[in-house]
Amino acid sequence: MDWQTLTSQLFPQGHDIQERLHFLSGTGTVDGQEVAVIGTTGHAPIGIEIALAQARAVLETVRRHPGRPILILVDTQGQRLRHRDEMLGINSYMAHLGKCIELARRSGHRVIGLVYDQALSGGFITSGLMADACFALPDATIRVMGLPAMARITKVPEERLTELAKTDPVFAPGAGNYLRMGGLQAIWEDDFAARLAAAIRDSDSVDRRRALGFERGGRKLAQPVAQAVSAGEHVRPA
Question: What is the CATH number assigned to the segment(s) 3-137+188-205?
């Protein structure tokens, strides 16, 4: 779904969101409430310019509109793989974006992430996954790393990873698998405006992803291990 169609459904009461070089920004009204919107489109690679633009938009909202909810629209192929960006320290720029979103959360802004097209690697980690709650549309493509790249890095044959992906959501892309792992709160299939209003109303700053992953059977060890560590228990390697 393109961002214009999506935002018209998210904000039937109107919005002023604009695109500039794959960067989205503006405001929309849902359930009578103003919402700040930042995001990306066109499978944007996150370079230093877009990372800074998103961070600036978050900080401006914190400075000028205390408490205003923030919606992060995600469509990215991950960080831009250019020598220039690497030499300028793209990792620091993306970390800065993540810190700005965390500042907004700690300052009382409800932050909602929505993957409406594609979400890959660091571009997703420092945006949608930093939100109080992250959601996705059914056809969204979500993955940290493609299986061919994963095979090259881990030295595990791609055929073996493909087989594992059939039963283990950790290896498999797609919104459904991230839902099972707890990375997504829910998948939105209809009535986007009502779902956004409910997400803003019901979200809080408590991170429930481990618990959700355990309940849904997608991450079976993260929650028990975290509980054991917090209780001071000794955790034996599996």
Answer: 3.90.226.10
Give residue-wise pLDDT tens across range 44-55: 999 999 999 999
- What single string gives the DSSP state of each residue in the chain? --HHHHHHHH-TT-B--EEETTEEEEEEEETTEEEEEEEE-SSEEE-HHHHHHHHHHHHHHHHHSTT--EEEEEEEEEE---HHHHHTTHHHHHHHHHHHHHHHHHTT--EEEEEEEEEEHHHHHTTGGGSSEEEE-TT-EEESS-HHHHHHHH---HHHHHHHHTT-TTT--SHHHHHHTTS-SEE--S-HHHHHHHHHHH--S---HHHHHHHTTS-SSHHHHHHHHHTTPPPPP-
Reported confidence tier of residue 20, pLDDT bands at 50, 70, 90: very high
Tokens 């996705």 correspond to: 136
Report field, pTM of the whole predicted structure over 0.70: yes
Q: Phi/psi zone of residue 21: left (φ > 0), alpha (ψ -120 to 50 degrees), beta?
A: left
